[in-house]
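Show me any protein, fold above all:
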Amino acid sequence: MLKLFSLLSLLIAAPAMAHAQLTDLESRWLQAGKPVIDYARTQGLPIDIIVQPQDAPGAVPLALGYAAGRCKLVLSLRGNAMADTVLQGVPPARDGLMIEAMTAHEIGHCRRYAQGDWHALPRGFVEPRSMQRGKLTPLAQELRETRREEAYADLVALAWMHARHPGQYQQVLAWMRGVRAAGEAAGGGIGSSHATQAWLALAEGEGAFADSASPFEQAQVLWGKGLSGDK
C-alpha cells in the first residue's frame, strides 16, 4: 500500500546500516524483496531503501514515498504488529512469496511516479462526462484516484509473480483478494481507496498476462480494461 511520509522523520538508509543493526525480520523482508528491487534498478528506476530504526506501531510495514526524483521504499517493522497481521493465515514457508509480491506492488507505484504518470489516465482513455474531474466531490475524486493507483500496483505485483512463480500464482492472487476483502469488511466499502477487486477479477482468467512483456506493460493492459468499469 502506498503511504506518503515525511522525509524529515528519523529514517536510516539500509545500505548505510551495519548488517548487525538489522533485525532478523528486517533481513528476511529485504531478502525476499531483493529480486524485485534488483529488477527495478535494471529498468532505471531510482530506488532508495529505508529502514525505520524506531518502533512504528500501526505503520504500513512496507510503503513507498517519492521525493527529489527518487522512490523511497520504507520498511517499518519494529514494534509493529501489522507486520504479522498482513501475513496472517499465510504458511510460514510462503511468507517470502507474499513479501515479494508486496515489494512488486510498491515498485509499481515507483514506476508511476518516476514516469510522471501519477494519477494520469492511459493515453486515449476518456472518462464519461459525469465522472470527469470537477464533476465529483474532492473526497470522491481522491478515493477514486488512489484506488486506481492501488489497482495498477496490484496488477504489477501479479504480473511479476505470474512470470517468476507461475506455480504459486493462484495462491498469491487468493491472498491478495483476501487482503482487499478484509479491508472492505473493516469498513472501507467497495468504493474505498483500496477496493481493487474488479481488477483482481480480471487477473483470474487464463492468459491474463503475457510474460514476454514487462510487468509494467502487462499491468497497463488489464488496468485500462478495469478503468472502464470504475465509477
Q: What stands out?
A: Strands lie at 12-13, 47-51, 62-67, 70-75. The chain has two domains: 12-88, 119-227. The chain has a mean pLDDT of 85.
